[in-house]
Amino acid sequence: MSRLPFYLIVGLLMAVGIGMSVHRHVQFEVPWTQGEQRTVWEVEAIIDFTALGNPVRVDLALPQHQRGYRLLTENTASPGYGLSFLQDETGRRAQWSIREAAGSQQLYYSARLLVTEDRRQRELPTPPLREITWERPYDTAAAQVIERAWARSADPHTFARELIHDFSEDRQGENARLLLTQFERSTLLVRLLNQADVPAREVSGLLLEDGRRRQTLTPWIQVFAGDDNWALFNPTTGAQGQPENLLLWESGGRAVLEVQGGSNSRVTFSMLSRNQPAAAAVRSQLADDTLLNFSIHSLPLEEQALFQTILLIPIGALVVVFLRIIVGIKTSGTFMPVLIALAFIQTTLPTGLIGFLLVVAVGLVIRNYLSYLNLLLVARVSAVIITVIAIISIFSVLSYRVGLNAGLTITFFPMIILAWTIERMSILWEEEGPKQVLIQGGGSLVTAVLAYLAMNNPWIRHITFNFLGVQLIIMSLILLLGNYTGYRLLELRRFKPVTED
Fold first, then answer.
1. Do 326 and 432 fall into the same domain?
2. Rounded to whole angstroms, how far apart are CA atoms 321 and 366?
3. Where do the Inactive transglutaminase fused to 7 transmembrane helices domain residues begin and end (predicted)?
4. Backbone torsions φ then ψ of 66, nearest 5 degrees
5. Which pLDDT score is estimated for 289?
6. Is residue 43 part of a domain?
7. Are residues 170 and 306 in the same domain?
8. Contact, 49 vs 91, CB < 8 A?
9. In this predicted structure, what is the pLDDT of residue 301?
10. Residues facing 85 on adjacent strands
C-alpha cells in the first residue's frame, strides 16, 4: 500500500502549522521568545477652544497604521459630547458633537502606538493636481522659480528637493523672498509643485520625544511619482525621507482640527515612551480573530488561563510518544505520565514527586488487602478511588497542621488516574512480580518528569499559547514517529554480547 497519501498529510500539516506561525509573527509581530521588549508610545492630544453657546462639532484627524508604527488602542474623554470615529479616503477622524456648549472647552484623545520593524511604505492614491492661479507679480516669480529648479532636476523627487533648496537661506533669491511674503512655506511649495504638474500635498507629523508636553504638529511635503512611489520632504531643510521618530498624524491633505460653533481652537500633544513585553504590547490586536489570525486571546481571561495549560498537553504527548516508540521506556498506562506532569505543574516538582510516591505506596498497601476480599472489578476500583480520596484528604490536613502549605497542592493529582494506576500496578505485582512494577512505575515517573520539564519550559509555554500553528506541527511529528517500526534504543542492549565477541 502506497505511503504517499500519509506523507502528503504530514507535509500539509507541517506546512500549514509553520505558515500560520510565521504569518502571526510577521503580520502581528508576536515574538518568538518571551523576554522580547517593544517600545510603546502613549500620545495624548488635548483640544482647547471657546464654545459660543451654539451647537458644536469638532473634527480631529487621527493617526493610523503606518511605516514604523502600529496603532494598538485609543481612548477619549469628552463629558457630555457625542463621539463617532469616521473613515474615508483621506483617513480617520474623530468627530465630537453637542447640542449646546458655552465657555472654555477641553476634549481629550489618547493613543498607544507600537514601534514596529515594518518599514514597508504604504501604497497611497496619487492626489489630484490643483489648478493654481496667481496674482501679479507672483505669477512671474513662481514661473521663474519653477523653471530654475526644473532645469536642475531629473524626476519629481529631485525637482521637489531642488525647489525646497531654492527657498533656503543660502540660496534664496528675490523671487523666492517675494513668494514667501504671500504664503506659508509648506503651502507655497505644494502650490509650486502642483503648477509644475507634480502631485503633492501637505501633511502633518508629530516628532516623538520622550516626556515632551504641549507639542504641536509640524508640516511636511508628500511628493508623488506614482501610487506606490512617494517620498516625504522636510519643507525647511529639503531632507528626503521619514525620520524614525516622525509619526504622520494627518496624511490626507485635510485640516488637522476643524471646529464649528467655537473659536480660538488649538490642539497640543504630550507623549511618553514605555518598554513593554512584546506579547503584552500586541495583545489587543490578537483578540481580532481571522482565518489566519486564529487565537484564543478573544476569550475571557479565565478561559485563556485554562487553555494555556490545555495547550501544553500535546507537548507531553510528544514526549511520551518519543520515549515509548524510539527509546522504549515502559509506562503504566499510555498517557498517565502526561496527566501526572500536569499535576506537577500545579504542585511544583519536589512536592509532586513526594505526594505521588506517598499516595501510590499507601494505595498499593490498601489495594493488597482488598485483593483478599475477592471483590468484583468495578467494586474494587471504586473502593480504590475512595481510598485515594481519603489518602489525599488526610495528607492535606496533616501537612496543613504542621505548617506545610505546599502539601495542600496534592489535591491537583487526577484521582481517577491514580486509582487506575494503583489497580494496574497491583495486578502487575500479582502476575509478573515486583520487578515489573518497579520498571513500569519508574518508567512512568521518569516520563512524567521529562514531560513536566518540557511542558513547564517558559519558551514552550509562550510558543504553544501564542502560536496555535504549533499544534499542527506537533501532530505531524507524532504521525511521523508513529510510522517508525525499527528497534527501540533500550532493545539494542540485547546485541551487547555480539559487540563483546
1. yes
2. 32
3. 23-181
4. -155, 180
5. 46
6. yes
7. no
8. no
9. 62
10. 94
C-alpha cell at 273: 515612551
Per-residue cell: 302? 479565565
Distance from C-alpha of 474 to C-alpha of 451, rounded to nearest angstrom: 14
Q: Are residues 369 and 423 in the same domain?
A: yes
Contact 443, 331 (CB under 8 A): yes
29, 114 Cβ separation under 8 angstroms: yes
Give a yes or no: residue 101 inside a domain: yes
Measured in degrees and rounded to the nearest 5, phi and psi for residue 91 equal 135, -165
237 domain residue, yes or no: yes
Residues of the chain short of pLDDT 70, as ranges, are 1-2, 35, 119, 121, 227, 277-302, 402-413, 499-501
**CB within 8 Å of 333: residues ≥ 6 apart:** 417, 420, 421, 424, 444
Strands, sheet with 246-250, edge to edge from the N-terminal-most edge strand: 230-233, 218-224, 200-207, 246-250
| Number of domains, the chain | 3
| Same domain (yes/no): 343, 489 | yes
Are 340 and 230 within one domain? Answer: no
Q: Please tell me whether the overall predicted TM-score, pTM, comes out greater than 0.85 for this model.
A: no
Q: Residue 114 belongs to a domain with what CATH number?
A: 2.60.40.2250
Say if residue 320 is in the same domain as residue 444: yes
My answer on whether 391 and 486 are in the same domain is yes
290 is a domain residue:
no
Cell numbers at 24, concatenated: 502571526
**Spatial distance between the Cα atoms of 298 and 289, rounded to a whole number of angstroms:** 7
- 21 vs 32: CA distance, rounded Å: 9
Q: Cis link prior to 199 (omega < 30° from 0)?
A: no
Which of 462, 65, 410, 168 is closest to 177 using CA atoms?
168
Indicate whether 111 and 182 sit together in one domain: no
Secondary structure of residue 452 in the 3-state scheme: helix
pLDDT per position as a tens digit, 327-379: 888 887 777 888 888 888 877 888 888 888 888 888 888 887 777 777 777 88
Task: Determine the Cα–Cα distance for residues 215 and 268; give it in Å rounded to an integer.
Answer: 5
